[in-house]
Amino acid sequence: MPELTALRALARAMGVHTQYTDGLRQPVTVAPETLVRVCAALGAPIERPADAVEALRARQAGANTALLPPVVVAWDGTLPPMAFPGDGPVHAQLTFADGQVVHMKRVGPELRVSRPLPLGYHQLTIEVPGRRESCTIIAAPMQTWRRPGSHRSWGVGTQLAALRSARSRSLGDLRDLQSVCHWVRERGGDLVTVLPLLPTFNTEPAEPSPYSAVSRLFWSELILDLGEGHRPAAAPAVLDVTRGDAEVRAALASYPVPAPSELDQELCRYARFRGAQARLGRNWRDWPAAARAGTLTPDQVDPEEERFHLVAQSLTRRQLHDLRQRLDHGGFRLGLDLAVGGHPDGYDPWSRQALFGDGMSVGAPPDLGFPSGQDWGFSPVLPAVSRREGHGYLAASIAHQASLAGVLRVDHIMAWTRLYWIPHGFGLHQGTYVSYPAEELFAILALESNLHRCEVVGENLGTVPPEIGEALPRHRIWGMYLAMFQASSGREVAPPTAADMALVGTHDTPTFAGWLEGNDIADRVRCGLLAEPAAPAAHAERTQATHWLAEQVGSRLEDPRAFLGTLLEWLGRSDSPLVVPWFEDLWLEGVAVNLPGTPSSVRPNWQRPMRRLLDQIFTDAEVDRLLRRLHRARNP
């Protein structure tokens, strides 16, 4: 077999795409060098195309030796019959999540269970002479959880750190968030969505992006309500997480280590990791071999740093638990974001090194918004390893968020089917897609949604494979409608449907006022995301889109505030179950919180505080009229 033919066959067998269509609708044939690097990261014994023939032979030889697949989905508790050919003795035992044991029976060439399975994660173990294997059974509802009845809800979306009141310190905290929730509820809304509340690197060099978390399993200590330790601060010019970190540390300096009953093994290991970073440096790949591999000695861990994180996480858990209880009691919900990845120097890739693809970064191929492609800066999860572990890490990441959220938005839900991998050192256009076991991942999402009574939205913007379009309604997951995007697609701007959460824009788009003015176009040129000769065409397209949307909703561009009110009413009258304008759009903020594709060294992403105090917003008659107009449209 020719080596290139073998390489492509090996790649396809490992779920690596050898061809795809990028966001510019251009067909791409993946280069052999990319296939070699990606297959090697997935575990193939390959360094060059010439190794592909033997690597493919080895994979084919081991493909049919397993007694069980790593994961089996039992939709709605129905475990399908499992093929088990042969006549020899077999012992098959199901151990449920609660410890109960049920034996499967052999019926001809199949193993069957006589009863529906309870929802949860179970273990199936099979023994035959000389062999014993196990797999994870995910017994999940086909559909995610929904509140009973029919709802036409609305809320607002915001960045918690940017919230500011007269009482605030340098960053917004949970007390500020609760005040926004109370204010929205008084006007008839039932939801406030926030960007990820996950921990970030807050000491120099600070990395404030909420989408580049130290871990997807813990909370940001910066959101704490410091109680008696709270000290109001003057309005900052920028959101400085280093300053916010110092405020939290000062307030918690005298707190003792929490009681053992408040600590779990994962938290203790996380705190030791943060303590080790304080001693050994942020990049754990540069640590001594044993520490890099996961074994930390007492002299490698800063005890004060360890204490701080044990205290901070315990307090944050407690405050967030209390917050959800208060919100639930008032019929109000918090919306959270499930980030698609985390920081490569973070706790998760250190504590689960076998799970992450070293030497790879996740991103996106070239598209209209980013003609060069995107590198999102985090390592991908290895799908085969995740399956062998029963997808425990993903389940824990979802459960962590769903335990607090009333609505969970899954960032880049296309990742449930495929992710774009870029080998380190390669161009952004030189990556390729790797497939993921979508059925199993949707089963986990549906299960955790039901366990925690949390509704789910999938961020299905950009290049969306057909499988996602089919999966969202099948699993009762809302998609996303952005008025800005829809207006760019043609003069007849379709309204949102009952299948989508409706928004004007998001944290990754210009604000409404910025979109009307087109000031993000100059920002993209300045940051090298758009060639200057292309700017006039971009402005012309924007002018056309804004006119189309104004025409559709029956408004005029000359009065942005009136346009916004009419647009919110138009969205409110739609069939969308949930309308969520960005908080700052209510007073026509012109500067976006983020420009995707730019590092904080080029543009101060995530570092712009709100230019208005909550105290002013809460008494602003114009803002009040906008939201009451939206509420009336939702409740005719």
Descriptive report:
Helix 1 packs across helix 2. The model has no long low-confidence stretch (mean pLDDT 95). This protein has an eight-stranded parallel beta sheet with strand order 19-16-13-12-11-22-21-20. The chain is globular. It has 20 helices and 22 strands. The chain has 636 residues and is of the alpha/beta class.
Kindly list the characteristics that best describe this protein:
alpha/beta, single chain, 636 residues, 5-stranded mixed beta sheet
Give the termini separation. 69 Å
Mean pLDDT: 95
Beta-strand segment tally:
22
Rg over CA atoms, rounded to whole Å, is: 26 Å
Helix content: 25-40%
Kindly name the structural category.
Answer: alpha/beta
Number of helices: 20
Shape: globular
Describe the biggest sheet? 8 strands, parallel
Portion of residues in beta strands equals 15-25%
The low-pLDDT segments are none
Helices, strands, pairings?
Blueprint: H1 3-13, E1 19-21, E2 27-29, H2 32-41, H3 52-62, E3 71-75, E4 82-83, E5 91-95, E6 101-103, E7 105-107, E8 110-112, E9 120-128, E10 131-140, E11 153-158, H4 174-186, E12 191-194, H5 241-251, H6 265-280, H7 289-292, H8 303-329, E13 333-338, H9 347-351, E14 360-364, E15 374-375, H10 383-388, H11 392-402, E16 407-410, E17 418-423, E18 432-435, H12 438-452, E19 455-458, H13 466-474, E20 479-482, H14 483-487, E21 500-503, H15 512-517, H16 519-526, H17 535-553, H18 560-573, E22 578-579, H19 614-617, H20 621-634
Parallel strand pairs: 3-10, 11-12, 11-22, 12-13, 13-16, 16-19, 20-21, 21-22
Antiparallel strand pairs: 1-2, 4-8, 5-6, 5-9, 7-8, 9-10, 14-15, 14-17, 17-18
Helix pairs in contact: 1-2, 1-3, 6-8, 11-12, 18-20
